Amino acid sequence: MKLYYAPGACSLASRISLHEAEVPVEFERVDLKSKVTEFGEEYSQLNPKGYVPMLVLEDGKAITENIAILLLIADRQPPFEPGNPLGRIRLVEMLSYLATELHPAFKPLWHGAHDIEKAAAREAVTSRLELVAEQIRELYLFGPRFTVADAYLFVMLRWAKAFGAWMPVELLAYFERVAERPAVRQSLAEEGLRGDLHSPFFGSHTSAQETAM
Ligand SMILES: N[C@@H](CCC(=O)N[C@@H](CS)C(=O)NCC(=O)O)C(=O)O
């Protein structure tokens, strides 16, 4: 398998999840501005959508979209909440909320929008995070078991902190718990990122990424 990624981008959730699932995988970095990969491939030719993540399977088939990739990885792990007929649906429900409600709320913050738009975006992020915080049970979103949804949420909590969006205190504690997981530490190190909540920006954050995400 190969994951196409950009440091600190949403593709970090796939990297974390692949490491959590102990799936062997290679990585290829994409420059989101030039759309050229670290090995000089034209990314838009490989993935006409032009964005990360993209996961190429062992048989060469390519999967895009965070929800699809994260579910594929989840399906390579022991069943989620076996015995609960709504178990997997709840996971899809959470991934959908993260991908279609929380993730797009960050867009004005990445795109150098006007200050008024950025303030509105921070409020939108915070209101969505407040809803998500209510879902945390015991350690993680679905209780004691860390899931692909936690990996995705963790990535966006990094963004929220970097952009100064307020978040409930439960999420600060949750963030620190997730950051301590070996697969998360490994993933952050591989992308040259810092795990603590107090770093204002991503370790490898560049203006190119800022304009492209
Ligand atoms: N709908 C896509 C969105 C992915 C996305 O927004 N990726 C960002 C990084 S977090 C990206 O690659 N942006 C660069 C671009 O759109 O050109 C998904 O859920 O996978």
Q: Provide the β-strand percentage band.
A: 5-15%
Q: Specify the biggest β-sheet.
A: 5 strands, mixed
Compressed to H and E, one letter per element, the order equals EHEEHEEHHHHHHHH
The name CATH uses for the topology of the largest domain is: Glutathione S-transferase Yfyf (Class Pi), Chain A, domain 2
Q: How many helices does DSSP assign?
A: 10
| CATH A-level architecture of the largest domain | Up-down Bundle
Distance between the termini: 24 Å
Total domain count: 2
Domain GST N-terminal: 1-81
InterPro entries: Glutathione-S-Trfase_C-like (IPR010987), Glutathione-S-Trfase_C_sf (IPR036282), Glutathione_S-Trfase (IPR040079), Glutathione_S-Trfase_N (IPR004045), GST_C (IPR004046), Thioredoxin-like_sf (IPR036249)
Domain GST C-terminal: 84-201
Pfam families: GST_C, GST_N_2
Structure explained in plain terms:
The chain has 10 helices and 5 strands; from the N terminus they run βαββαββαααααααα. Helix 1 runs parallel beside helix 3 (66-74) and helix 3 (66-74) packs antiparallel against helix 4. The longest helix has 19 residues, at 87-105. The chain is globular, with a radius of gyration of 16 Å. It has 2 domains: 2-74, 3-Layer(aba) Sandwich (Glutaredoxin); 87-181, Glutathione S-transferase Yfyf (Class Pi), Chain A, domain 2 (Up-down Bundle). Strand 1, helix 1 and strand 2 (26-31) form a beta-alpha-beta unit. It has 213 residues and is an alpha+beta fold. A 5-stranded mixed sheet has the order 3-2-1-4-5, covered by helices on one side. 50% of the residues lie in helices and 8% in strands. The structure holds glutathione. Glutathione binds at residues 9-10, 32, 50-52, 65-66, 99, 212-213. It comes from Croceibacterium selenioxidans. InterPro entries: Glutathione-S-Trfase_C-like, Glutathione-S-Trfase_C_sf, Glutathione_S-Trfase, Glutathione_S-Trfase_N, GST_C, Thioredoxin-like_sf.
